[in-house]
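Narrative of accomplishments. A recurring question from our advisory board has been how the design workflow behaves on a single, concrete structure rather than in aggregate. To address it, we present the structure tokens for one chain from the evaluation set, followed by the sequence designed for it. No filtering or post-editing was applied between the two.
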């Protein structure tokens, strides 16, 4: 609007200087400017409607969704702060990997910010939000697995309630694919050694990733969470973790529906390695401050 007013005043000034008055041609130019401004202003409220109608997600919408002022992001920050910090780390790792292979970095970043919003329903059941008390202590292994698995379904419900675009909902549905909740699955088997365990009870019912961006998020999410178990990891430790996670996803068929080449996977692997090492590298320990005064002796 300010730019339009500047053009208008400049045009009027030049017209008056040159002609001494505003000509019919000048009036037509001014009318055309007003019509253009009106159409531009009219387009802003129409764009979101067209995006929903045709399933298109613009860059401007993605930028808006990445703002911490968005209601659902605020909800995540307040109700599950540990999950929010995890999501930020995953977003940074996934964005770097997507950039490296020419995928949609902004899309995967926003998808990462929202992928765990379902944890706001029962945040205390997720370790990053626990404050000394483990809520799983009162649950059976199967009940614990159900609580963990439910965050995907709850996330989809919240995303639809807050009217997130389908392309973001897809990240929520696919970030665990059909993997198992391994910890509680193994624990249940130990507790019931004679029982034939139904693996499906411990599997996420979601769909597998079907885009490069979703695949990147799945791996980045698993790596960020698993890397927290490493204490002062070396580069070799990180490499072994990455290999184990990626191998598990491949053998589990989680990449079967995504058009992801081994070359792209290797590029992403390098980015994951660099990102995780920069996050977990050991800090330099500075020598303790030398005391200026000696401790008083018994004689003193």
């Amino acid at each position: 609007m300010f730019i339009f007013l500047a053009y208008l005043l400049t045009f009027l000034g030049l017209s008056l200087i040159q002609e001494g008055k505003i000509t019919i041609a000048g009036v037509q130019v001014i009318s055309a400017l007003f019509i253009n401004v009106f159409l531009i202003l009219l387009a802003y409220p129409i764009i979101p409607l067209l995006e929903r109608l045709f399933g298109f997600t613009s860059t401007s919408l993605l930028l808006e969704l990445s703002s911490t002022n968005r209601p659902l992001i605020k909800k995540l920050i307040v109700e599950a702060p540990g999950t929010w910090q995890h999501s930020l780390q995953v977003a940074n790792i996934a964005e770097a990997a997507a950039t490296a292979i020419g995928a949609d970095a902004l899309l995967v970043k926003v998808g990462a910010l929202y992928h765990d919003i379902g944890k706001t329903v029962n945040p205390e059941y997720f370790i990053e939000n626990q404050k000394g008390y483990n809520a799983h202590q009162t649950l059976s292994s199967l009940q614990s697995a159900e609580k963990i698995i439910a965050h995907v379904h709850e996330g989809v419900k919240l995303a639809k309630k807050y009217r997130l675009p389908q392309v973001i909902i897809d990240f929520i549905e696919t970030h665990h694919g059909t993997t198992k909740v391994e910890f509680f699955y193994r624990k249940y088997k130990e507790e019931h050694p004679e029982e034939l365990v139904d693996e499906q009870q411990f599997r996420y019912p979601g769909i597998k990733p079907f885009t490069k961006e979703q695949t990147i998020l799945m791996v980045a999410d698993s790596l960020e969470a698993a890397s927290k178990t490493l204490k002062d990891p070396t580069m070799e430790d990180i490499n072994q973790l990455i290999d184990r996670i990626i191998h598990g996803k491949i053998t589990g068929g989680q990449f079967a529906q995504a058009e992801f080449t081994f070359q792209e996977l290797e590029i992403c692997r390098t980015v994951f390695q660099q990102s995780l090492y920069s996050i977990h590298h050991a800090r330099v320990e500075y020598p303790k401050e030398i005391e200026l005064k000696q401790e008083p002796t018994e004689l003193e």
